[in-house]
Batch of 3 targets.
Target 1
Amino acid sequence: MYELFVLGELSIGPKHGYELQYILKSTIGPFRQISSGTLYPLMSRLVGSGFITQRDEPQEGGRPRKRYELTEAGRQRFHELMTAPLEHGTDIGLTFQFKLNFFGYVDPRVQLDTLEQYLGYLQADRKYIAELEPQVRAKPGIPEPKRAQVLRMFSHRRCVTEAEIGWVTEEIDRLKRKPVI
C-alpha cells in the first residue's frame, strides 16, 4: 500500500525522502503516522528492485540529502498497482484513498473499476452489519449495557458506510457521464 503511494508521488516528479514522508503524513491524517523506520526501508527496497533511483545531493554544512526519482520500471509498477483489484483483508480504505489520490494519472476505466470495487466492498460491509445487528438484538446472555453500545457502534458504522456509498456512487455516475476523449 505504501509502495503505491511512493511510486505515485514520484510519478509526479523527483522528491527527497523527507518530502515523501511529509506528503504521506498529510495524506493519511494526524492520527495515523508512518515512521522513518517504515518509509526508508521501503524506499531502499524500491531502489533495489529498480523501481526508483536514489541520488545524493550535497548540502552546505550537512549530510547530503537523498533525492528519489521514478524509473520506467517504477512507472510500470505504479500502473500495475493502480490497476490491481482492491484486496480484502488489507487496509482497503487507505489503499482506496491512495488510489483516489492518483486518479489523475490513470485511465478513466481504471478509475471506474477502482470505484466499483470499493463500492462492492462498502455494500458487503453494509450487508454484514444488517445481518449481524438482528443477531445481537436477539442473542440472550449479552448484558443490556453492552448490547446497547454494540448497537450504537453498528449505527455509527452504518451511517459512515451509507455516506461513503453515496459519495462513491456519485463519482461512478460522474465518470460514466464524462465524455470519452
Note: DSSP finds seven helices and three strands in the chain.
Target 2
Amino acid sequence: MVFQGTSAIALDAKGRITVPVRQRDLLMQACEGRLTLTKHPDGYLWVLPRQRWEQVREQLMSMSMDADPWRRVFLGSAVDVDIDGAARILIPPELRSAAALGKDVRLIGNGRVLELWDAARHDAHEAQLLAQPMPAEIRSFVLR
C-alpha cells in the first residue's frame, strides 16, 4: 500500500477529520479503518494503518536504551483510532496540541504513511525546504 497526494480538509469543532475517499478506500481495504496516530518530531502527526504501526513499534522496541527519549516520543504519544461510520477519525486533544492543528489541515500521503499537518505550518515548512539546496540524491533523480 502506497499513499500519495495531498488533501486539504477541515478539523471540526470536536477534533475530527473526514478521511478523503482515496485514502479511506485504501485504509478500509487494508486495515478495516484501524489506525494509529502518533507525534512526529517535525511537528506533524503520523497516521498509520494499525499493522504498519505494529511493525514500526517492533522496530522501536528493538532499539537500544540510547533510543529511549525518541522511543518515548513515538510510543508515548501513540493512540489507536478507528474510522467511524461517517468516515471520520477523532484526533485526541493532546495530539492536536502537539501538532498545533488548527481548523485547516492537510492529509499528505508519503509512501507508507500518511502525515497530518496544520496547513499553515506545512506551508511554512515546505517554503523553508524549497529555499534550501536539493540533496544530491534528489538532484540526480531521473525519470525513466
Note: The domain at 6-139 is CATH 3.40.1550.20 (Chemotaxis protein chec).
Target 3
Amino acid sequence: MALLGTPASAASDNKSCDTKRKIFTVNESLPSLTRKVERHEPIRILAIGSSSTEGIGASSPDHAYPAQLEDELGESWKDGVTVVNAGRGGETAIETIDRLEAALKAQSYDLVIWQVGTNDAIRGVNEEAFRALLDRGISAVKAAGTGLILLDQQYFPTIKDMGRYERFVQTVSALGLERKVSVFSRYALMQDWNSRSAEELRSMLSADGFHMSDKGYDCLANHVADAIETLAEQPVAQTTGAGATQLATAR
C-alpha cells in the first residue's frame, strides 16, 4: 500500500489546490490500464456517484469534475480519453449500485471512479448496510475486470454528527485496503482547505456551502488526474519487508 499526497497539475493556476496531506492510497496496480496507455490506445473511464459527480454547484456541466478530468488526462494522453459522467444527485449507495452494475454490463471501461458515501452518512443509512453495499459494488467492478478508485465523502462545515460521519469515511478506507482497491480521500483534501482557513474552504464551495464550486471541482479533477496517472505510470512497486509498497509521486 502506498500513501500519496499528490500535487495538483502544473497546468492549473489554482495555487491553493496544493496539499501535503495523504489524499490517495494505492492499494492495487492497474496493469491493463498501463498497457493501454503504453500502446497509445483510447482510455474509457466511468465516473459514477451522486451530486458531486453530476456537478451540482458548478456553473455548467463543463465545470463538473468528470469533464475537467477528461480535459486534464487528455493533455497527457493524446490518444483519446473519455470520461463518462454518470452522476445523479441525491443518490445513496443502494441507488447507485443498480446503475453501476447495469453500466458495467452495457459497456466496457478501463477504470471506474465511484464517488460514494456522503448521502448515506447524512441520511441515517445503517453503517453495516453501507459497508455491505460498498463491498457489493467493489465485487461488481472486479468481476467486470475493470480498475476501480473509490472517491470518499466530502468534508463540509455543517457536519452534525462528526463521529458517525467519520466512521463512514473510515469504512471506505478500510474496505479499500481489505479488497485491494485504491482510495482517493476527498474528505482529507477538503479538511486541508478548512485547516488553512474557513475562507479557503468557502472559496472551494458553491453558494449552498455544501457542493463544490468551479474552483473546487477544478482542484478535485487536477488531483484525481494525478492519481490516475500515478497508477498508470508506476504500476509495479517495490515490496518492503512489511509487505507494503512505496510509490514515488509522479509529476
Note: The longest strand covers residues 43-49.
